[in-house]
Amino acid sequence: MLSISEIFEIFGHTFMMRAMVVGLLVSLCAALLGVNLVLKRYAMIGTGLSHVGFAVMAIAGIIDVAPLTLSLPVVMVTAFILLRLNDSNKINGDSAVALISTSGIAVGVIVVALTTGINLHICNVMFGSIFAMTQADMYFSVVLSIVVIGLFVLFYKQLFAVTYDENFAKATGVKVEIYKSLLAILTAVTVVLGMRMMGALLIASLTLFPALSAMRICKRFLSVVIAAAIIGVVCFFIGMMFSVALDIPPGATVVGVNLIVFMVFSGISLVIRGGTK
Amino acid sequence: MAIITCKQAAFAYDGITVIDGLNFEVNNGDYLCIVGENGSGKSTLMKGILGLMRPKSGEITMNEGLLSTQIGYLPQQNSAQKNFPASVTEVVLSGRLNSRGILPFYSKADRKIAHDNMEKLGILPLRKKSFRELSGGQQQRVLLGRALCATKNALLLDEPAAGLDPLVTRELYGTIKSLSADMGITIIMISHDIQAAVEYASHILHLKNKQLFFGTTEDYTQTKTGKLFLGAAEENDVIN
Ligand SMILES: Nc1ncnc2c1ncn2[C@@H]1O[C@H](COP(=O)(O)OP(=O)(O)OP(=O)(O)O)[C@@H](O)[C@H]1O
Ligand SMILES: [Mg+2]
Question: For residue A110, is it within any domain?
Answer without folding.
Answer: yes
